[in-house]
Amino acid sequence: MTNKRPSIDVAVIMQRIANTGPAARWQPWRWELADVVMNEPGFGTEPRLLYENESIQRWLHGGLKVELFKDDAEGYYLNATTDVPSWFVLWRMEEEASVAEEPMAIPMIATLSYYDAGRWLDAQETVEQVPAPEPVLQWLSAFVDEHYVVEPKKRKRPDSFKSLKDRFGNPVSISTEKKFGGGQGGGGGQAGQGDQHG
Fold first, then answer.
1. Of the candidates 46, 63, 50, 39, which has an alpha carbon nearest to the alpha carbon of residue 15?
2. Residue 165: C-alpha distances to residues 115, 170, 172 (Å)
């Protein structure tokens, strides 16, 4: 029985950037997500330094698997239908340096689910996003089309569409025509009185 979930292997690029301005006094560097790319066998699973100069280091972390789960189809749908569908990456700082001279940011998990990202943020994790490329979006959209069923919402009719009733419960019709009151003829009633001189 094959119940294999669709998945792709990715690599995450994290970068360490020199802080400038007042922040540099307290923290000379900051880490951020740079990119998510398709994994290649040659990348391996150990962090690899890709690039370094005096203000930036880029590290490649290979071998992360992104799986799609049927029960999270709505989370993928919400991501796929935003203006900028994205990868979401949860990363944590190492407790102790393992590869470099100082502790580095290690990507723990990557996802295409809006709900995963929300849960991680609620749990006070560090989550960042970068735009996902078109081939990945096509793959994601095909999965969403197959597995996401829009729940029919029981729409509440806006009050403005309810039929109006008067205080006796009878239907009321509304007209937008202006009605000008004042009776017929406009002359008004007192004619013919007061001419009687005897």
1. 50
2. 45, 5, 5
Contact 115, 109 (CB under 8 A): no
Tens digit of each residue's pLDDT (9 = 90 or more) over 66-82: 999 999 999 999 999 99
**Token pair in block for residue 43:** 């990348």
Q: How far from each other are the two terminal CA atoms of the chain, in whole angstroms? A: 120
Amino acid at 113: S
CA distance 14 to 91: 9
Of the pLDDT bands very low, low, confident and very high (cuts 50, 70, 90), residue 170 is confident
Helix (H, G, I), strand (E, B) or coil at 107: strand
Higher pLDDT pick, 169 / 73: 73
CA dist., res. 116 & res. 75, Å (int): 8
Q: What predicted TM-score, i.e. pTM, was given to this entire model?
A: 0.74
Are the C-beta atoms of residues 29 and 82 closer than 8 Å to each other? no
86 membership: H or E segment, kind and range: strand 86-93
* Cβ atoms within 10 Å of 140's Cβ, excluding its own: 22
Contact 130, 91 (CB under 8 A): no
User: Across-strand partners of 52?
Assistant: 57
- When the pLDDT of each residue in the chain is averaged and rounded to a whole number, the result is 86
Q: Minimal CA–CA distance to 33: which of 64, 62, 60, 65? A: 60
